[in-house]
Hints:
4-stranded antiparallel sheet, CATH 2.40.50.140, mainly beta, 2 domains, Ribosomal protein L2, domain 3
Amino acid sequence: MPTISKRPITPAQRYHVGLKTASLSKERPVRNLTESKKRTGGRNAYGRITSRRRGGGHKKLYRKIDFRRDKLDMKAEVLRFEYDPNRSANLALVKFEDGELRYILAPNKLKEGDTVINATTEAEFKPGNSMPLKAIPAAMKVHSVEMKPNTKAQLVRSAGGAATVVSIEKGMATLRMPSGEIRMLNAACRASIGEVGNSEHGSQSLGKAGRSRWKGKRPRVRGVAMNPVDHPMGGGEGRTSGGGHPVSPWGQLSKGFPTRKKNKPSNKLILVRRNGRKVKN
Length: 281
């Protein structure tokens, strides 16, 4: 969807960059494909804040999305495209031959009236079709990729995202992820053809702080603007960073400090990190 800018009648409109939504349906989401979404405000069961800068925001209904793609070898027609407030990608409402309705992530170049299928082995390489990685040729772009067979898509689900199939060897598929990481997955894992739509999502500009509040995001206060009692980088005469490395309020390094566990089982499946370093397994 192309971006749009408004004539700045107000200060907020001067910096606002939005997306054209003419292709999205104005109808309410399908009732039996939605459920209520509970908000925590960043609090745990004891009422203590565990995730900062959360609170407020507009009410949302959660859309149940078919990440499993387990209705096999049955064609489905694309009825319409819808906005989803819970993610950056848009949704496509599809209707199977038996009348069942489901939501899937809308890939680029998918149009109303097109048909998609969840193939057992292989099918036509059209955007939106789902099939095992072993049936997809090299250099093909995919999204909504499973990490383990017969589970659900967990990788490459955000707007504009696409992974590239590098090779299929000995029952393992090698993929280049959107981050640049090269990793291996079981070739029986399912993936959808094409890249996720709404690729201009990153070109938006909210225009004012209030729109962040509508999304449930509260202001972020810099550590150097706090008092020493509140943050390790706080205090000092005038503007100062404290002379130390940037850290969190609890002292953990906040730039360049790896937080991934060294004994994580999936480490052995990563061939090249997102920073370009090759992994020695």
